[in-house]
Design goal:
The complex is a heterodimer of chains A (346) and B (294). By secondary structure, chain A is mainly α. Chain A has 14 helices and 2 strands. In chain A, helix 3 (64-87) crosses helix 12, helix 4 runs antiparallel to helix 5 (116-138) and helix 5 (116-138) packs antiparallel against helix 10 (237-263). Chain B has one domain (17-223). Classes of the chains: A mainly alpha (346), B mainly alpha (294).
Amino acid sequence: MAINTTTPADLGPSGAAPAGAAQRSGSIAPAPTKATQGDVDGHLKIAFFVMLAFFVLAPFVVYPVFLMKVMCFALFACAFNLLIGFGGLLSFGHAMFLGTAGYASAHAAKVWGLSPELAVILGTGASVVLGYVTGLLAIRRQGIYFAMITLALAQMVFFFYLQAPFTGGEDGIQAVPRGHLFGLIDLSNTWAMYTFVSVIFFGAFLMIWRIVHSPFGQVLKAIRENEPRATSLGYDTDHFKLMAYVLSAGFAGLAGAVKALLFQLASLTDVYWTMSGEVVLMTLLGGMGTLFGPVVGAAIIITMQNYLAQLGAWVTVVQGVIFVVCVLAFRRGVVGEIAHRLKRNL
Amino acid sequence: MEIFGVPTQALFGQLLIGLINGSFYALLSLGLAVIFGLLNIINFTHGAQYMMGAFVAYLLLNKLGIGYWWSLLLVPIIVGLFGAVTERLMLSKLYKLDHLYGLLLTFGIALIIQGLFRNTYGSSGQPYPIPSQLMGGKNLGFMFLPNYRGWVIVASAAVCLVTWFVIERTKLGAYLRAATENPQLVQAFGINVPRMITTTYGFGVGLAAFAGVMAAPIYSVSPQMGADLIIVVFAVVVIGGMGSILGAVVTGFGLGLIEGLTKVFYPEASNTVIFVIMAIVLLIKPAGLFGTQK
């Protein structure tokens, strides 16, 4: 059982069921469907190549900047999913990593005139450091408290950026130059930028895939399912949780740094709690604990925002409705549901 | 007259504002603690329900001509009933699942409520007049105390105290505390626990709505008024720990005062001071000042 642990009280009339069974069925990232190792990889590879083919072919049909935006948010959601889906930790403050990396890379590219690859590395590094500091605090509590603490820490970071002189306050850092990659490739060209974003997205996705299936990832899963038992097996669970948190922060930062270069803008929107809520929504809708779910969820939410943008506050209402429907009736998410039907991991 | 180089007038003024904010922190974190105690759910909708309280009071006044005093009584009932209905229809489906789903659900409901109100009333604030009986203020010698603000502090402290008394010192509260510890056992004694859960949620929501009515004449009534506040209240709850009712109240008022003092001595940090305190408390006593880590 991943989360909970705050109180032993089991609620409601049906709480009489053995605690272990009840908790496992209700775990926030449902245990994946059983499948043999060979099958798992085969299906994952097919799904991966479908995704690759989509992002190679789609820019000929769809507006490339839109696709790049989808990739940035997909990576952001994948990073978030690494923590909730595989580590069982619900962070409600992931926007702080997206925004911090955005500000750092935008500042590096615009004020210091660094090349884009260095700006991205610097931005990611800033998020990793922030992840380490906030992680040390947040992992001291579990479950609901973890969510509240990350949310509060993110709000603190938000207020810091609101007042800090280098962020430009409400205006943000505008007109960030995309620059020349390695001093050679001009990223103001849309196709060059598209390739740059794609390479980063797919590279990071493969890294997350590798992390999830590594011994480290398996230990994380063990902690998610039953932390006391993982402790009794001799694992320093706090250390593993912190590592997962920092990794997640790093990938979220990578997404934020690339996003800042893509839109040539770093703004307060990316640090605000609504952004933290959006990434939760993307992952929930796509399927927590699945590799491809966050990508699908991000694509759906970004598309929806694109079409509903002129409706103003209705976007918030629709997002709220999706939250409610997903939690009440669709907890596996889109990809999780497909995986369940196919009896395969995705 | 000056204290540490700060004019007393300004110092006490900010302390008063801190105490007012503290009243709202206390009322809201009290509601959160009551709900959490029995439902094990952090009610993310709390901020939206606080906002609803203010808006319902505003609508009662402008559409039906019902004034502040009746609102103070009616609004918590109306919004509390609304909360009870959402608990029956939605939250009650989640008790067997991981408690984080409750957090996600209530977050979704908060988005819906805030979005709907923003659609109808826009983002700008609506004015709500101070009731005529509480106009004006008193000169206390060292500072000027507006009557309404004094009333807010007294009234919220009284409500907090009554809530504490009901939960810790009455038969009803004893059932409630028992159900928090072991719902199955309490149910075996013939007490209708599901109804108790619904009532408790409704009561917690009612507290938020009450805070909303109290806040309406001070802050302008706007769809976003609860959104940022609830995050601060979360930090207050983490600092106090969910363990005790009195703890939530004391922490709420205390942090409001500290925030007020920060505004005087180091205004740049006034937005973040509560979060900083939260970080320090997490380092020293992770369970919170009044909490027990289970």
